[in-house]
Design goal:
- The complex is a heterodimer of chains A (173) and B (169).
- Chain A has 173 residues and is an alpha+beta fold.
- Chain A has four helices and nine strands; from the N terminus they run βαββαββαββαββ.
- Chain B is of the alpha+beta class and 169 residues long.
- The radius of gyration of chain B is 16 Å and the shape is globular.
- The chains are: A alpha+beta (173), B alpha+beta (169).
- At the A-B interface, strand 5, strand 7 and strand 9 of A face strand 3, strand 4 and helix 2 of B.
- Strand 9 of chain A pairs parallel with strand 3 of chain B.
């Protein structure tokens, strides 16, 4: 019986990994759902929804030739696959500044307390080795309204965090 | 008046260039009324283009007044619309009746000046800004067989393209 799995693959980045993984899955009669691939700190990372007629082990066996030849590690979890039910974010928050310990915990902690449901978060360290800067972009749902988020952010700004909030007003047409 | 079926991507009618309207008659008015009723039947919808109903004509309706708190010209029927000037660019989120369950970021001009005809064939000109400008550009794209999917930009690139762009010019 076809079942959804979350397939996670990580390893040292090199060209053509996605193509090889996808080809192995296609040849193994798998069906792909949503996926997110990112290069993080020089590492290849991907999480993909895979529909597969088998179990965790048989899916790992299917992609083993690719993961072995490319030096990747794979992990599989059985999941409830839900497609066609996207939750739309209504707020975008960006944070940047000199990199310092605890910034993610501080910002996300403050925002979650006033009703932010984070739907996506991406962060990067840029700048130079001597002077790293931290950049974070969050999209989410303001479950208790945007005003409470703005107020929490202004407290963070007073504490020296450079943070901006922008409502996402999606045009639907 | 009637609510017509919305064509969904990948329907081929959404990828064709539509023809200019030449006849400003009762049939056109009925068509516009159907477009309007179909738009209003879709919750949250602020614009519609004839190709979304499988009609191969350059007709759009925009109504940014349906969204609270945005500047607008009310409900406008724009026939054979042409953008004659653009100013400043900004990224914003769009969704489409013809592409259910997906929204994406798209770069659009912040201000556009549009020449168009009304249902009686009289020429009119508008300057649209911000949210309303985005709706108009989204709809005019439909007349040229373009969907917002053709213009998607990465969500990550949102960070540094902001409204104060134009102040730096």
């Amino acid at each position: 019986m076809n079942q959804w799995f979350m397939l996670t693959v990580v390893g040292k980045d090199k060209p053509a990994i996605v193509a090889h993984v996808a080809a192995a899955l296609f040849e193994g009669d798998c069906h792909l759902g949503e996926a997110s691939m990112l290069r993080i700190g020089g590492n290849f990372t991907i999480m993909m929804m895979v529909k597969h007629d088998g179990n965790e082990k048989s899916l790992l066996v299917l992609i083993e030739p690719v993961t072995q030849s490319l030096g990747l590690r794979a992990h599989v979890d059985r999941i409830d696959g839900e497609l066609h039910h996207h939750v739309e974010p209504d707020v975008c928050i960006t944070v940047h500044g000199a990199d310092r310990a605890g910034i993610v915990a501080k910002v996300t902690g403050a925002l979650v307390e006033v009703g932010l449901n984070i739907l996506s978060l991406e962060s990067d360290v840029a700048g130079t080795e001597d002077q790293p800067i931290y950049i974070m972009s969050i999209e989410g749902q303001a479950m208790e309204g945007i005003a409470s988020l703005e107020s929490a952010l202004s407290t963070l700004v007073e504490q020296g965090v450079e943070a901006h909030l922008r409502p996402i007003e999606a045009v639907f047409a | 008046m009637a609510v017509l079926d919305i064509r969904l991507y990948p329907d081929a009618c959404l990828k064709q260039r539509a023809n200019a309207v030449e006849c400003f008659d009762g049939e056109l008015r009925t068509l516009v009324a159907d477009l309007d009723e179909t738009m209003q039947s879709a919750p949250g919808c602020v614009g519609i283009a004839a190709p979304q109903l499988g009609i191969d004509l350059r007709i759009i309706i925009v109504d940014a007044s349906l969204r609270k708190g945005v500047e607008n010209h009310g409900r406008q029927v724009l026939i054979n619309p042409e953008i004659i000037s653009w100013d400043s660019y900004v990224i914003g989120r769009e969704g489409c009746l013809s592409v259910p369950d997906f929204t994406g970021n798209v770069m659009r001009a912040e201000t556009v000046t549009v020449d168009a005809l009304d249902v009686n064939g009289q020429s009119q000109q508008f300057e649209f800004e911000d949210f309303e400008a985005r709706v108009v550009q989204h709809e005019i794209d439909h007349l040229d067989g373009l969907l917002f999917l053709d213009r998607l930009v990465s969500r990550r690139s949102d960070l540094f393209v902001r409204k104060n762009y134009k102040n730096k010019r």
